[in-house]
């Protein structure tokens, strides 16, 4: 082999090796940048029970529903967070937020005075009417019509508090019998109404109509006006956060996105998709 050829070969090898080192360096730098970017993101776990259709339910092993999909869209607008959805029992949503396992609760969560002392609420994300599901022929137009009748309910839920408050305010009447059934799915409770185990279920109109239709129950749903319910939050659905500095920071950022979604029609679009109608709160709720 000539000296000239040897020099040329060595030159090619040297250039190739240098190019490889540069490529490796760039790859390593890119990898470190991605790792650094990922490390900067704060981890957020959104808790839901996957059993409150159409707000939260599971399809092919994945949680979806109005509240779930809205929460996902909200955090897509907040790139500083890496958010994931976790399915758990309803009562575990609250205890999980207390323990710091979850940062957001998204599960058709209504407002209650007791709960408001412990958690921070977002702007409302949907609004519907309170309603009573009964067997057909059992006409109900007010809570007074439920005197002496029985239901199944979870402790600490706003619907349960409505019934308990009625009992306290009407000591001269037969009390509404509340059988506590924590973590009992709405579908099961409605089945217990149909089988005459209990007389009624108080819930929101959207959920009652959805579950009754899906499961083929022969029940009727009657919208009901709660007298003196004492707050402007009746019938509204919220995200909730821990009542601490991190929760307050999250609430501010989430509320800003929700206000944008109200303006650009995102809330209305999701409402029509999951509720078959416009159940978005008034624009004044986002100020």
TrEMBL record:
PROSITE patterns, per database record: PROKAR_LIPOPROTEIN (PS51257)
Sequence ranges assigned to domain Solute-binding protein family 3/N-terminal in this UniProt record: 43-278
Signal peptide: 1-23
Record carries keyword Signal: yes
Keyword Signal: yes
Taxonomic superkingdom: Bacteria
Keywords per UniProt: Signal
Gene3D superfamilies (UniProt xref): Periplasmic binding protein-like II
Short name of any one Pfam family annotated for the protein: SBP_bac_3
Protein name: Solute-binding protein family 3/N-terminal domain-containing protein
């Amino acid at each position: 082999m000539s000296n000239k050829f040897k020099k040329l070969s060595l030159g090619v090898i040297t250039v190739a090796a240098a190019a490889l080192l540069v490529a490796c360096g760039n790859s390593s730098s890119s990898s470190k940048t991605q790792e650094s970017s990922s490390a900067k993101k704060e981890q957020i776990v959104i808790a839901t029970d996957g059993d409150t259709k159409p707000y939260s339910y599971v399809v092919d092993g994945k949680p979806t529903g109005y509240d779930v999909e809205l929460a996902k869209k909200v955090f897509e607008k907040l790139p500083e967070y890496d958010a994931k959805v976790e399915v758990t029992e309803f009562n575990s949503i609250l205890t999980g937020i207390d323990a710091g396992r979850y940062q957001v609760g998204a599960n058709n969560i209504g407002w209650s005075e007791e709960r408001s002392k412990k958690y921070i609420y977002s702007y409302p994300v949907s609004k519907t009417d309170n309603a009573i599901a009964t067997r057909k022929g059992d006409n109900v137009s007010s809570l007074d019509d439920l005197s002496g009748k029985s239901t199944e309910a979870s402790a600490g839920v706003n619907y349960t508090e409505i019934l308990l408050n009625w009992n306290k305010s009407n000591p001269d009447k037969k009390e509404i019998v509340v059988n506590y059934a924590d973590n009992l799915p709405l579908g099961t409770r409605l089945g217990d109404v149909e089988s005459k185990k209990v007389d009624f279920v108080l819930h929101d109109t959207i959920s009652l109509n959805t579950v009754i239709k899906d499961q083929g129950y022969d029940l009727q749903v009657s919208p009901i006006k709660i007298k003196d319910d004492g707050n402007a939050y009746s019938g509204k659905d919220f995200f909730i956060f821990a009542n601490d500095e991190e929760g307050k920071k999250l609430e501010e950022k989430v509320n800003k996105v929700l206000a944008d979604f109200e303006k650009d029609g995102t809330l209305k679009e999701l409402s029509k998709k999951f509720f078959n109608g416009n159940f978005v709160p008034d624009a004044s709720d986002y100020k």
